[in-house]
């Protein structure tokens, strides 16, 4: 009996005892995993799924986590200012041994389902909404503290952006600058008249 399973975007024809190299799975060596995406079961009475065979599964034991052969990517641009770049890559793989093929009852086997692992450094999906919520909560507070610095004579959008980069986002912050602090700002030259106008606007 054989089965055609799908994992990591690829299809494999397997039978008990076969050893496969598949896309990296989130499992350690010695663990048993189960592939539930079975496209076809072969044998005396072949069964073709639509697209998967319901209740079927392929069980396997993880042998080890390995890396594939190195693939070299070479890019050369033939221009006046030509450039060359060579990059090597080794795909992360999992070596598994097929132990059993189930034609039914795979959903009740209790064995861990084989799933791919997320790339290193990738944030967990559950953490993303929390970060977005924090950013949304902080945004109104920042907007309330900031003033439209383009209201000052001689300050355009570009100058206002440079002032913001220097940590000056309100009339009060600009009005409170001392001569030493003004001299220490590298991103933009702060004009004395801006400070005077900011003092008037900060007082309302």
Structure description:
The chain has a five-stranded mixed beta sheet, with no helix packed on it. A four-stranded antiparallel beta sheet has the order 2-1-5-6, with no helix packed on it. Strands 8-9 form a two-stranded antiparallel sheet. The chain has two domains: 2-113, no CATH class; 127-203, DNA polymerase, domain 1. The chain is 25% helix and 32% strand. The protein contains five helices and eleven strands, in the order βββββββββββααααα. It has 204 residues and is of the alpha+beta class. The chain is elongated, with a radius of gyration of 31 Å.
Counting structural domains, the number is: 2
SSE topology string:
EEEEEEEEEEEHHHHH
Number of DSSP strands? 11
Total count of helical runs of at least 4 residues: 5
Report the β-strand fraction as a percent range. Answer: 25-35%
Sheet with most strands: 5 strands, mixed
Helix amount, in percent? 25-40%
What strand line-up does the widest sheet have?
3-10-7-4-11
Distance between the termini: 84 Å
Radius of gyration: 31 Å
Q: What structural class do you assign from the helix and strand content?
A: alpha+beta
- Which oligomerization state do the chains in this entry correspond to? single chain
User: On the 0-100 scale, what is the average pLDDT?
Assistant: 83
Poorly predicted segments: 139-144
